[in-house]
Protein 1
Amino acid sequence: MKLYSGPLSLFSAKARIALAEKGLEHELIQVGWSREDRYLPHHPEVVRLNPKRQVPLLVDGDVVVYDSTLIAEYLEEKYPQPPLFPASIKERARCRRQEAAVDEIWFPHIWDLIETVFYPTDDPHVAERAAAAQAELARLYEELDRDLAGRDFYCDRFSVADIAMAVMIFAASTLGAAPPEAATNVARWSDAVRSRPSVAEVSADLAAAAAAA
Ligand SMILES: N[C@@H](CCC(=O)N[C@@H](CS)C(=O)NCC(=O)O)C(=O)O
């Protein structure tokens, strides 16, 4: 199995953690990235296999899967143990809803912070965008803290929702938007999730790539 990944790609980090949690041997291929050119030129295999020209991209024999959410779904179906989705339909729906929320509601705010730190811009509103992102993330942390009350994980077991949240909250924390101290449920959850070897290893790789960028 091969995973095409980006050294600073948060979506690739999700796929890497899922593979590690399932103990799946794979070749990790880190595509090129720079502040100036971002992902250009795209890796030739990514161009050939993914019309979106994005990582993560998984190749498992003759199966090609792109998009971190679809990769997690594929891995779960092909390699069900250990599971990364809850058992009940109700909890699976909660898990999928939260993973989507992290990718589609949290990430745009995190992207605003990434742009201010990593990519030079002449947008005169960059500081305002960063401040608005910080405010929105503060609101999302409050909501998440309520959702995690009385729960070890977001759903009834460690799941793709926790993976998506771990990656985005790790990134937000390194970009000046760490969870507030009052969010004690988030802190308890974060300690548990970040101590997992899969999350610890991938977070360390992201931190090293960010330091070198
Ligand atoms: N929805 C996709 C998003 C993937 C994505 O945005 N990948 C970025 C890196 S984080 C990428 O490959 N960008 C290449 C480019 O924009 O040229 C997923 O969940 O995998």
Protein 2
Amino acid sequence: MKNGYIFLGAPGSGKGTQAKKLLDASGIPSVSTGDLIRSEIKRETPLGLECKPYLTSGKLVPDTIIVRMFKQWVETHAVATFISDGFPRTIEQAKVFDVLISQELGYTVTIVFFKVGLKTLKKRILGRRICPKCGNIQNEFFNPPLVSGQCDRCASAFETRIDDTEEIIQTRYDSYLESTMPIIEHYKSQVITIDAEQGPDEIFVSIRKQLSV
Ligand SMILES: [Zn+2]
């Protein structure tokens, strides 16, 4: 059986981290449409060239082009199982996806929904500290620095991202829910919900168990 797992979750839900962990542990490849578009444009493929005018004029690349790109990736990799990181994210995209990936290529599509509350997301995002010198990442709430404001590894001062405020996180979360809930509704019985309030290792265990991978 051929399986396509669509990872959906708000920014900060940890779905990207989990996709990487699954690749390392089970060799399941994951694909994100952002990476796909960038790579097609860079390699100047026919689909890449089709995308270019939209991007240069600041417009969204049409869903049909994105799904064709996606289909090409799936066909080229010829894998029994793949993970799609965050795509399809709208009902319109899901409809094209269903035709090209489910019907034409025969993949069974399952949504893996990373459910996490706003309170936890705020802690994850606002508590995040990145060391500009050594790249070490810590969190004020989950693994606080030994000396406040300083990297545990090299003692440099941490950078704080000023673009992430509580208000921005809230707005991003609301618009995320608004666009994702219809997808969850669309796939109904094909949705697996993961408790993404847990730490990364616990999340990983429950994904492997629920997906049998
Ligand atoms: Zn450091």
